[in-house]
């Protein structure tokens, strides 16, 4: 649904109606297009192109003394290495850098699409995208755990961590099993999804309030509400940019910590 | 006649309830984190790391509470 469409229809005209789930539903881009070709798909393809182009420009011809875009690329790389890979995975964290850097920047750009004019859609607000990313990490985590600890050792390390009083294991073992095998991929994806979903809904709400009270139904009393909505849209946009970057960071941090836990179970 | 009637979207009340626990938890995490940084400023990076990790794990509960009403309705 496009923005004018939402604003034209609410409740038959007379009353303000907050935007709901319908702002997340998109029909195909043009009439007769294949049904999967919608705005989120287009933006995610655009994100892939941006990320690839950025790193191509940064590292295509690396120089010993970096210039221009290579500087930015190196700062981004060092950030992921020093803040995520090395603290979470340890010494062999550098081996995982290609995966972590691409995950981090893909999610970061994907989220920031939510505050770029015209596009205005954090794609992670469709749960399909975070689920796939979390599933990749989940499958990798289980594969690495079994490879490095063995099938029995994996479950033993997970459910019976050493050094606790015996009766405690009755409670601990099922909780650990549930939280590691079932809840982990679920919360990993839902965390990213729900943050983007809530943020987009919030921005849409304040923007709709501003448009409705300042342009559609301009009255003396309503103008104040409209101005508040307008200012809140600006403030929330800044806040959303922060949250989007934080969520990209946290998603990658958790992915790294799951991988690290699979490689070194003693932690 | 009802003494106290709840009308409207019950999901929003559920979200309010779901936000209590994580709210307390996130407050404790950041409060203790800031205190730890004030005591050991040279460990700021490590503390911030673990603070954000704990924050992410705690916040998940509130977010699940936020999403469930939409899924359920």
From TrEMBL, chain A:
Stretches that traverse the bilayer: 41-59, 96-121, 127-146, 167-186, 192-214, 221-239, 245-263
Compartment(s) of residence: Cell membrane; Membrane
Annotated membrane topology: Multi-pass membrane protein
GO molecular function: proton-transporting ATP synthase activity, rotational mechanism
Cellular component aspect of the GO annotation: plasma membrane; proton-transporting ATP synthase complex
Keyword Membrane applies: yes
SUPFAM superfamilies the record matches: F1F0 ATP synthase subunit A
Pfam families xrefs: ATP-synt_A
InterPro entries, sorted: ATP_synth_F0_asu, ATP_synth_F0_asu_AS, ATP_synth_F0_asu_bact/mt, F0_ATP_A_sf
Keywords linked to the UniProt accession: ATP synthesis, Cell membrane, CF(0), Hydrogen ion transport, Ion transport, Membrane, Transmembrane, Transmembrane helix, Transport
Positions in coiled-coil regions: none
PANTHER family: ATP SYNTHASE SUBUNIT A
Function in brief: Key component of the proton channel; it plays a direct role in the translocation of protons across the membrane.
Similarity comment text for this entry: Belongs to the ATPase A chain family.
Protein name from the UniProt record: ATP synthase subunit a
Source species: Thermomonospora echinospora
Gene name per UniProt: atpB
Automatic annotation (TrEMBL), chain B:
Family of the protein in this entry: Belongs to the ATPase C chain family.
Entry annotated with the keyword Ion transport: yes
Domain of life: Bacteria
Main localization category: membrane
GO cellular component annotations of the record: plasma membrane; proton-transporting ATP synthase complex; proton-transporting two-sector ATPase complex, proton-transporting domain
InterPro entries: ATP_synth_csu_bac/chlpt (IPR005953), ATP_synth_F0_csu (IPR000454), ATP_synth_F0_csu_DDCD_BS (IPR020537), ATP_synth_F0_csu_sf (IPR038662), ATPase_proteolipid_c-like_dom (IPR002379), F/V-ATP_Csub_sf (IPR035921)
Transmembrane segments: 12-31, 52-71
Membrane topology: Multi-pass membrane protein
GO molecular function, one term: proton-transporting ATP synthase activity, rotational mechanism
V-ATPase proteolipid subunit C-like domain sequence ranges: 13-69
The protein's name in its UniProt record: ATP synthase subunit c
Pfam family, one: ATP-synt_C
Entry keyword set: ATP synthesis, Cell membrane, CF(0), Hydrogen ion transport, Ion transport, Lipid-binding, Membrane, Transmembrane, Transmembrane helix, Transport
Annotated site (Reversibly protonated during proton transport): 59
Job description of the protein: Key component of the F(0) channel; it plays a direct role in translocation across the membrane. A homomeric c-ring of between 10-14 subunits forms the central stalk rotor element with the F(1) delta and epsilon subunits. F(1)F(0) ATP synthase produces ATP from ADP in the presence of a proton or sodium gradient. F-type ATPases consist of two structural domains, F(1) containing the extramembraneous catalytic core and F(0) containing the membrane proton channel, linked together by a central stalk and a peripheral stalk. During catalysis, ATP synthesis in the catalytic domain of F(1) is coupled via a rotary mechanism of the central stalk subunits to proton translocation.
